[in-house]
Amino acid sequence: MKLARLLSWTLGLAVAAMCITVAAHERKEVAGLDVVFGAEPEPALTGEKQFLRWRFLSKDKTPFGDIEEMSATVKRNGKTFGPFTGRMAAREPGVVATQHIFTAAGEYEVTLTFRKKGDATVHSITFPFKIADRKTLEIP
Q1: What is d(CA 27, CA 33) in angstroms, rounded to the nearest whole number?
Q2: Which of 15, 6, 64 shows the shortest CA–CA distance to 35?
Q3: 3 in a domain, yes or no?
């Protein structure tokens, strides 16, 4: 009986953790691809090295790595920063990343522009995200 409760409780925690992880990432479609966006590590904090990441998936949900000319701009309070060159993650097919250190907490928006290999069309996709103040997690 105790084992059954423990397994039920463990399964419940695992499902809750998966829901939290999924909720932290946004998904959109562009150029016939599914794109999942997120910041890593999470939570995204001021003063920490932060990666903005886009995972490209084909309609059959396999990684799509035939992306080139990747460039991102970040917008906050109407001011645009960048462009920042996006790079394919070496060990993760279909993942594009940019690296940043944010100095101000708040609401941001990032736009990634890219081309599919062999296609002259430039595509763009925009996602909102938040940066939290690191001090809210610090214990004096």
Answers
A1: 10
A2: 64
A3: no
107 within 8 A of 59, measured Cβ to Cβ: no
For residue 115, being part of any structural domain is answered with yes
The structural domain count of the chain equals 1
- What's the CATH code of the domain at 82? 2.60.40.1930
Q: What is the domain extent for residue 111? A: 27-135
Q: Tens place of pLDDT for every residue, the chain, 140 residues? A: 554 443 344 433 333 333 333 335 799 999 999 999 999 999 999 999 999 999 999 999 999 999 999 999 999 999 999 999 999 998 999 999 999 999 999 999 999 999 999 999 999 999 999 999 999 888 87
